[in-house]
Amino acid sequence: MVRQSAVFGENLILRRRIQIEVFGTRVDIADTVENAGFRPTPHAMLYHLNFGYPFLDQNTRISGDISPDFTAAFNDGDKRPHPDFVDYYEGIAVQPNQAIATIELRNEALLGGMRARLSYPTAALPALGIWRAFQSGIYALALEPAKPQSPETNILAPGESVTYKIGIGIGSTTDPNQPFL
Fold this sequence. Notes:
This protein is mostly beta strands and 181 residues long.
């Protein structure tokens, strides 16, 4: 449990449940945010899932319920580390009318092929961003599903709670039927 509170401000409680099956290939995370205060409180949620070397390299590809234009640009782009690279965040459009968004990163060259798959409900987490930090010595890529803060729509009444769920699976590209996510 984590509490975020301030005098004359918010009083939010986050409860997290992490589920991992023995010998499984996935991790399920369920977070419940509760307004334990006495006044309505705006809130936001962002998951930051980092991937780095050796999974991240020039052979890493992205696919899933995202813009085909972004997919093509990322897959064909230069993903090598550079000493003067400046990190940046890019908002990515998720395919419309998807109840569950699934994003997959693959690297066919790593150990004969590895993949990581992220899955989450788009109603709860409607935004998706990708953070790139391809600077030498840092070299990371993050998938970031989020519910941005909006004082008009993301308000929790006193005693109200909301639950967010994401799933992360790891598997081999040589066995596409491997059960994960």
